[in-house]
Design brief:
alpha+beta, 3-stranded antiparallel beta sheet, two-stranded antiparallel sheet, 33% helix, 24% strand
């Protein structure tokens, strides 16, 4: 079977861009265990990020996606049902990612499933 993989990118800038609540490793581990999938998280601090806490400013023009502040959750599984369950749990907990490139780096099937579940659960378009 082919692995389905999604990189779900949450950005901290702006009230509607980031996750509903802070992303915690222990919550991700719990979701991974419950659904039997692989999950990881990477925090990226942008090259032009300024400020601390809620007072963050970042100039993103002329930056690649890898140079912009974000939390990237990578979900993967060969079992589509398990993959869907885990992504649904992430959307329920953190909301849908809000940018057009929020699944950049995912497999085509992973992108499609994330888009479908975001639209169903969170009104993503």
């Amino acid at each position: 079977m082919t692995e389905i993989m999604a990189k779900i990118r949450y950005h901290p800038l702006g009230p509607s861009a980031g996750p509903f609540v802070p992303i915690r490793e222990n919550v991700l581990e719990s979701i991974a265990k419950k659904h039997g999938i692989k999950i990881s998280m990477e925090e990226i601090v942008g090259k032009n990020r300024q400020g601390t806490g809620d007072a963050i400013r970042e100039e993103t023009m002329d930056s690649t996606i890898e140079e912009i502040s974000q939390t990237v959750i990578t979900v993967s599984s060969e079992d589509e049902k398990a993959f869907r369950g885990a992504v649904r749990a992430l959307i329920d907990k953190y909301g849908a990612p809000r940018t057009t490139y929020s699944t950049w780096g995912s497999t085509e099937r992973g992108k499609w499933i994330v888009a479908e579940l975001c639209d169903e659960a969170d009104g993503w378009s």
